[in-house]
TrEMBL record:
Record keywords, A-Z: Signal
Gene3D superfamilies xref list: EF-hand
Annotated organism of origin: Mesorhizobium abyssinicae
Signal peptide from the UniProt entry: 1-24
Segments for region (Disordered): 130-156
Protein name (database record): EF-hand domain-containing protein
InterPro entries listed in its UniProt record: EF-hand-dom_pair, EF_Hand_1_Ca_BS
Length: 156
C-alpha cells in the first residue's frame, strides 16, 4: 500500500475517533443540561412559583458541592474523573443486574445468567431444533429487540 494511502486511512481513522468522542461529549452535555432544567423546573413548583438563590443553587448540582466538601473543599481533575467514572459504572451495573436478576432481589447469580442465556438461545433458535445455525442469527450481528423476530419477550 502506498504511503499516501496509509496516511489517508490513518487520518480518516483519527477523524472518526475524534468525531465519535465529540458526539459522545455533546450527548453527555445535553443530558446534563436536561437534568439541570428538570431539577430547576421541580424547584419552581413551589407555592409562589419562584425560588431564592439558595434554592437555585441546591437545584443546580448539589452532588458536585457534596464531592467538593468530601474532598476537603477542593476537587482535582483526577478526583472528579474518578467520581464520574464510578457513577457511570454503577449505572451500568444497575442496568445489567436489572436485566439479569430473575428474583428481583438486586443480586446476580450464575442461575440468573444461565436463565438469560437460555432465553436468548431460544430466541435465536428460530426453528426450535436445539441448535443455532448461521441463518438464524439476526442481520447485522446485534442481539436484542429486532423486528424480524416473531416473538419479542422484551429480552435485550
Amino acid at each position: 500500500m502506498r504511503k499516501s494511502t496509509k496516511l489517508a486511512l490513518a487520518f480518516m481513522a483519527l477523524a472518526g475517533a475524534v468525531g465519535t468522542t465529540a458526539y459522545a461529549e455533546n450527548n453527555a452535555s445535553a443530558k446534563m443540561r436536561d437534568d439541570m432544567m428538570q431539577r430547576l423546573d421541580e424547584a419552581l413548583k413551589g407555592p409562589n412559583g419562584a425560588i431564592t438563590f439558595d434554592q437555585f443553587s441546591d437545584a443546580m448540582d448539589s452532588r458536585l458541592k457534596k464531592l467538593v466538601a468530601e474532598n476537603g473543599g477542593k476537587l482535582t481533575v483526577g478526583e472528579l474523573a474518578d467520581a464520574l467514572e464510578k457513577a457511570r459504572f454503577e449505572r451500568m451495573a444497575r442496568r445489567i443486574i436489572a436485566r439479569y436478576d430473575t428474583r428481583g432481589d438486586g443480586t446476580l447469580t450464575a442461575d440468573d445468567i444461565t436463565s438469560r442465556q437460555k432465553k436468548l438461545f431460544a430466541m435465536l433458535d428460530r426453528n426450535n431444533d436445539g441448535k443455532i445455525e448461521k441463518g438464524e442469527l439476526p442481520k447485522g450481528g446485534r442481539f436484542g429487540r429486532h423486528r424480524q423476530w416473531d416473538g419479542d419477550d422484551g429480552v435485550q
